[in-house]
Amino acid sequence: MSSAVTANGHDEAHHHGPPKGIGRWLFSTNHKDIGTMYLFFSLIMLLLGGAMAMLIRAELFMPGLQLLEPDLYNNLVTNHALIMVFGAVMPAGVGLANWMIPMMIGAPDMALPRLNNLSFWLLPMAAIMLVSSMIVPFFPFGGGAVNTGWTLYPPLSVQAGMGMDLVIFTVHILGISSILGSINIITTIVNMRAPDMTWFKLPIFVWAWLFTAFLLILILPVLAGGVTMLLFDRHFGTSFFDAAGGGDPVLFQHLFWFFGHPEVYVLLLPSIGVLGMIIPTFARKPLFGYKPLIFFMGFLAILGMVVWAHHQYTIGMSLNTTTYFMIGTILISIPVGLMLFNFMCTMWRGSMTFETPMLFAISIILMFSFAGVTGVMLAVVPADLQYHDTYFVVAHFHYALIPGSVLGLFAATFYWLPKWTGNMYDEKLGKIFFWWNVISFNITFFPQHFSGLAGMPRRIVDYSGQFVEFNVISSLGAFMFGVSHLLFAYIIIKTIRGGEKAPDKPWEGGQIGTPGLEWTVSSPPPFHTFETPPAVK
Amino acid sequence: MQSCKKTLQKTAGIAGLLGAGSVHADLALNLPEPVSPLAIEIYDLHMLTAKMALYIMIVVTAIIIYSLVKFRKSEGYVADQKFHEGLFGRFGWILVPVIVLGIDATIAGPGMKTLNNVEDYSEPDMTVKVVGSQWKWTYEYLDDDLRIVSNLKKLDPSDELYLRDVDNPLVLPINKRVRFLHTATDVLHAWWVPEIVYKKDSIPGYINETWTIIEKEGTYRGQCAENCGTGHAYMPIVVKALSQEKYDVWLAGQKQASAAAAAEAASDKEWSKAELMTRGEELYNKNCAACHQANGAGIPGVFPGLVGSPIATGPVGGHLDIVVKGKAGSAMAAWGAQLNDLEIAAIVTFERNSWGNDTGDIVQPAAAKAAR
Fold first, then answer.
1. pLDDT in tens, B274-303
2. By residue range, what is the domain housing residue B275?
3. Which of A109, B144, B272, B341 sits most deeply, having the most CB atoms within 10 A of its CB?
4. Whether the complex's predicted ipTM surpasses the cut of 0.95
5. CA dihedral in degrees (A21, A25, A30, A36; nearest 10)?
């Protein structure tokens, strides 16, 4: 019913159509347009960060130096991570939140539309600075490359040249953008719900983002503080991290990982929210254990804040401290296990069909479980003293972050693309993309568990003959994995340009599994939705 | 240990199958075979958690495959809309903390036990201080007043030991409890030889401790595990474990050689330019060329070149000063602690008279001593 109201409202509106020209995007305060910009920005960053990964894998294809100098290599490693985490995954999550949260809770727009515009337009500026950080070392005044990896550990980061300053300011700007975005999302969820949309009627995706936004506000200032101290050490003669001046190089690691570990859940939770929408849809029955899932997401967010030092077991903490972090980390398996359990029980006795979003969702459950069990292996301190800083860790976190967040974003894209564009994507291409992407992902990263156990450290530009086989397989897989994303971009563009018209309710099961407000508006939705609050069942 | 050996054999079998026809027959799929009690304990812990991981994955995969086969619309299965409201739907979640806690406890118990052994700092038989620097390892035998500097041995990428061999390995006796003290002079490093000892970071200003008892003679290899910049991939570690008798012979030889070198450096001998240049070139390539490059050109923007530089062609005093004391806030280390007077004199002489630098200066050890 409400869809009819809004559709009419749109037709009769006086100034409610989208503005024309570039101004529509530059000055946009519309949550859908800003969401679209976030998503496109993220896609571009995904391809850029992916191109860097291709260079990295090409260099590692064979022992010896073929393409890259060691410093340039590690600069690519640094920027690949920063671009993927801050440029691709986080903006994509915010893009989904922008598009979907107002439509899911029955709000006309985000609570703070101008702030929304600002938090997006900070991103391209930060991206330009991040890319410049890679370019300045090629100039005589630029100094050494940012060869530290994304963790930016001093004292190495104090040695680096001007690129490091650009990275520091990039982190500041990205941090501001994320905090503003989070404030906006929290405000929207708390204040803008339709009158009858009570807390426990909220779709799981909205809950997931509520926790994510709180996490971001809590952790980003700590990272910003840490890198600012680094900046002062580099230029203003302080010794926060310089042992010779009474400082402590390990302090930075604590500050970084106090941000860095919850950041993993910032990347993960939106995708968990997406799975909580997709699986009920294609299993044609409601989500299993809705309330426990919410409470355990909260538990995960809190526990995630207090286990950061498991990234630094090797720094020589006291026995008691190490034990505490080990137990805390192992306990993370409980909330994560519950999420996977709930998704599996949602599938259980469902009536499943296997469209592209569902295929991704199922593969995510499997591969993220795998990341979970290798995570428990890594949590056990003595064993970690062997695994630490090897390719075993690289394999683990790519299994956690690619299925756990990137593939979730792909699934979300396929799931909501019909709603966003009004066109169905090409199901056949979608399925080809799924199999191509997931198989090549496994070819790339599964062998890295073995090269890590065999003793290959991270962030090395060159390796000895004993690691050749694994790296050849990994590189070949990576090239296939990389190219598959061009197909992804092609499918998106093709869907935007045309295709079979999507009904308002493109997924049959959406009415049974997740009968939310977003399906009551037309596909594509009018420029302004829910100008009068919708009725909630 | 029994289970550990069995698994090793199995692993070796799989590795053999996969590696058949490959150049490198030692393709490994698992941690290398440990040769110290603690490394063996860690290995067993690793196998325990790996097995738990495997079992969990089998159960999860089985449930999912069963669901995919059974609960599909194309088979006409009708969804059970009340499933989430039933008794299992309301209380089934309790199963997760119960089962997962059980698994966690199974893992955490042995984990804590091994961790206590890792942190067991009983009286060692000998102590080696391991110092990481960009990009070499220095080993100080604290009980014997002996120091070994270990650099990468340059080999061709096709060589089996490419990036795995050094000029001077760390030599240790077997069946002795050895304590390693880890620290660094410039940035973070991590000393890691998986067969004999796990890793703890080498951090400037910190001293971390690890220990081992090597139970088998042999050569064990590892490399720097913590990113330390340009040369991170070029910091291999080689440990040679010898029987006590062989170790004693080696130690006596080393002590003699280092005493002779010290005596030579302290002698009043007036060194000729040719002698200093020959020694200087060798020492330069070993200690300086990693940054300043063999041709003295450095890496623009990162490491300053020495060709025609104001320091290498300016007053001798300034040149000696920077070599002996280093340059604060840069990668340039203070070499005074690592090289003797003769070595510093030889390097400075070499740098001032090579690659077109033609100051003609001959720097004697006495000058280096005065610069300290």
1. 888 888 888 888 888 878 888 888 877 677
2. 268-371
3. B341
4. no
5. 120
